[in-house]
Write a structure and sequence with these properties.
By secondary structure, the protein is α/β, with parallel strands linked by helices. It is 48% helix and 15% strand.
Length: 498
Amino acid sequence: MVKALALRIAAVVVGGVLLHLAFPPRTVWWTAIVAFALLWWALSGVRVRRAALLGAVFGFAFYLAHLMWIQEFLGRDYGPFPWVGLSLVMAGFPALGGALVALAARLPAAPVWGALAFAAQEWLQSRFPLNGFPWGRVAFGQVEGPFLPLAAIGGAPLVSVAVVAAGFCAAAFLQRPRRIVGLVPVAAVVLVLLAVPTPPVDAQDGTRTVAVVQGNAPDIGLGLFTAGRTLRANSLAETSVLIDRVRSGAVPRPDLVVWPESSLSTDGVDPAVDRVVDALGVPFLVGTNYEASATDTENAVAVWNPVTGVGERYAKQELVPFGERIPLRAVTQYLTPFVALSDFTPGTAPAVLPVAGTRVATAICYETAYDHVLRDGVADGGALLVVPTNNAWYGRGEMTWQHLAMSRLRAVEHGRAAVVAALSGASAVIRPDGSVVAETALYTADTLVEQVPLRTDPTFATRWGAWFEHGLALAGLLAAAAGYLLRRRELNRTSTGA
């Protein structure tokens, strides 16, 4: 008994680590399928409580590896508590997933229902507590694999379900290879992948030449608290280099210039920024800590026009918990250095801005983990995705590449080119099929100038993604409920001797 449990625990630990390895910067997307095959094997035939325990171990092993960048960021000052603590909290969601899988496993076509049941916990993870923490969703590890085109149909939720189903179905078939019926769900997954077309990349409403300015930031971790002037100066300096290159003919004049998140702090008045914008004669999208009033500061993207200066702006809606908004300050002062700062004021307007003759859907850094932000922006007419970000706090760890993968998936989900502008890298230009056209290195000053297609057709995921997500989660919960009722009926029959 103890030996069997130990073997199952070992399997889910390995599975959790394999799931992490599927994420960028690596390209071994298929390790996620092996991870869920191991999880299915470990959950087979166990009771709900034990399944919850195994799911928690699986989740803890995954998040401990996946969130290592938190330790690299805060470990020197706060020890392992933020990293391990968050990993433990997040492990609660796969614990729920394991319990739901154990219930759904009693149904016919159990691996498929089990995949829906497990993926239902991602719906909860994206919302609770404190508005959720959707980092590490299975779909974000699939930008190099064959599941990515599914994002255009059902967004991240469908990709996650498909990957989990592939692993569960493969394990179920290997457990009983002589049952031909076990091939049906495996074949169904393969046929679905073959039937989904490659996302189109052609322009529907012309093109725009976009310049992404990466001014660079010093690799000083928490020292960035006092580096605001340096960040602004670096962005201005790299923009001056761009102006010289445009004037010399080395690069074409862009239609739009994008500065990263937190490039400067402003109340809308900055003569130095006015000068570089006027010198190029094209509008900028500037990531800024915008002082909207004496008491309200927004993490915003502002349209900075030649001659007229600051125009419309978008304020970040999904603020980073314990970073941009601090709950329970009396407790969290021991876990985060940001407790000394005032909370940012969240935005309420849709994530879309009119600039350079088009509407641009924009999500600021962490917001790309949430489905609704860019979906709402594209639904409101966004023909191009722009993601300003500041990953400089987190050093050279994997956080940057994990975050970039989210923008690649969003490009496919909405059939739009995407531009990622990062303070210290990696900045990138992404095609509507998720492939990367150009990318900068970390901690270098650089500028990308690329022509991107504008697309206007909404994907199925853009139109119906919210309902699709809710439907998948509901199907998983109903499968678990049906499994529970089936089990109760079996127990009642046994107790009555029927």
